Automatic annotation (TrEMBL):
It comes from Thiomicrorhabdus marina. Keywords: ATP-binding, Nucleotide-binding, Phosphoprotein, Transcription, Transcription regulation. Residues 5-121 form the Response regulatory domain. Residues 143-358 form the Sigma-54 factor interaction domain. This is Sigma-54-dependent Fis family transcriptional regulator.
Length: 444
């Protein structure tokens, strides 16, 4: 990648001139600004690839300028390298959180200036290549990986694409059941129809609150398509009866009318369905219908050899969807991830990738990964501790707060998804979060 456009913002004329001379010799197109007003004029006239920005200037400080750039969405296109003669760790952290690419201390090392600019340009190139590659590639929805279990899952999906019988997908929480259900739909003859996803909680709630019309609307939407039901073992008896009619007779009786519906059912379970049948909480007849073609998804700890490909998948996802910077995981970092137990499965790996892309830049090191896993395990350990000095209500509130905070972190602050997974009505969930002092977008 050829040297790009630079903007140097510093109130010291000697520094501006020296940096201009250095980078012009390196082949960069260089502009300079002596203050915040000139900087804004310069970046609006010609969008720079890289901006060297002084923190302390007489009119507007660099942090304030960085905030302005963030509001103008400039940071989606420009790598900002902050400079300061008396910077603090706090200033560097604040700048990084606001989207700065790097932070350099004065006096500036000329060699480091050049290397930092080259690294920023290389990062821009990688981001562009990955976006272009992702645009050319078809959507990846089949199970990812070269392990025997993932190859077997892909073969199963391709085999079941020819049929429309119900499917039961079992696996631990976060193992990818919803992802596999979507793959089954998108490879089937029903791919042009809708895929409707409902939790057992929502299915039950519609019936219990006499909202049959709302449920029927969703079932009609899935006609000639696919209905995915999560936590199938939690369906109440009325919901089980409706599901049985759908499978056996391709019809439902609701609102005092019989409606013909052709829907493929994909049931998701954490492996507790057989136990529900044994305890008499789930109809054996329906269970037998669902388990004609059961699919078991292995936990991530059982196929960690797929982690390199999964990392690349999640990285590309966040680079293209959220505009995050592309980062490569070093071989030692990947080895550490392959040795980890992954209690949260694919969802935990996805969260790790998202957080690491947000909080850092450059190659992902083994130390960075180990620090993240250590913090994650510490949070889980704290959540698991029970303080018996509290009364029962206080202990319950604390446990509930830890549980909901963890769910919100896993869902990226998505209250609707958190409501589904927790089995709490969304209105009640908002009330609980408010009472517990939990911010959905920033759960502690």
């Amino acid at each position: 990648m050829k040297p790009g456009k630079l903007l140097i913002v510093d109130d010291e004329k000697d520094i501006r001139n020296l940096m201009h001379e250095i980078f012009a010799e390196e082949g960069y197109q260089v502009d300079t600004a002596a203050n915040g007003v000139q900087a804004k004029q310069a970046w609006r006239q010609s969008l720079p690839d890289i901006m060297f920005l002084d923190v302390w200037m007489p009119d507007v400080d660099g942090i304030s300028l960085l905030k302005d750039m963030q509001q103008e969405s400039l940071l989606e296109h420009t790598k900002v390298i902050m400079m300061s003669g008396h910077g603090t760790i706090e200033t560097a952290i604040e700048a990084t959180k606001l989207g700065a690419y790097d932070f350099l201390e004065k006096p500036l090392s000329l060699a480091k200036l050049i290397v930092t600019a080259e690294r920023a340009m290389e990062n821009i190139r990688l981001n562009q290549e990955n976006r272009q590659l992702k645009q050319k590639l078809p959507e990846q929805f089949l199970p990812i990986g070269k392990s025997k279990s993932m190859v077997s899952l892909r073969e199963t999906v391709e085999r079941l694409a020819k049929f429309t019988m119900p499917v039961l997908i079992e696996g631990e929480s976060g193992s990818g059941k919803h992802h596999l259900a979507r793959a089954l739909h998108k490879t089937s003859s029903r791919k042009d129809g809708a895929i409707v996803e409902l939790s057992a909680y929502d299915f039950n709630r519609h019936l219990e609150q006499m909202q049959e019309s709302a449920l029927l609307q969703q079932l009609r939407q899935a006609d000639m398509g696919t209905l995915v039901i999560a936590n199938i073992e939690q369906l109440n008896l009325d919901a089980q009866n409706i599901l049985t009619d759908l499978i056996q007779n391709k019809m439902v009786q609701m609102d005092e009318q019989k409606i013909a519906l052709d829907i493929r059912i994909i049931a998701l379970s954490r492996g507790e369905l057989e136990l529900a049948v044994e305890h008499g909480n789930f109809r054996d007849e329906l269970y037998q219908r669902l388990k004609v073609m059961p699919i078991g998804i292995p936990a991530l700890r059982q196929h960690t050899e797929d982690i390199p490909e999964l990392l690349e998948f999640f990285i590309n996802h966040y680079v293209t969807r959220d505009g995050l910077e592309y980062r490569h995981f070093s071989v030692p970092a990947q080895n550490t991830l392959r040795q980890y137990a992954w209690p949260g499965n694919l969802k935990e790996l996805q969260n790790l990738v998202q957080r690491i892309l947000i909080l850092g830049n450059g190659e992902v090191t083994d130390e960075e990964v180990r620090n993240y896993l250590k913090e994650s395990q510490s949070e889980s350990s704290q959540a698991a501790n029970v303080d018996t000095t509290l009364n029962l209500k206080e202990a319950k509130d604390r446990l509930e707060a830890a549980y909901l905070s963890q769910l919100l972190r896993e869902t990226g602050g998505n209250v609707a998804e958190t409501a589904k997974r927790s089995g709490i009505d969304r209105t009640n969930l908002y009330r609980k979060l408010k009472n517990l002092g939990i911010d959905p977008k920033n759960p502690i």
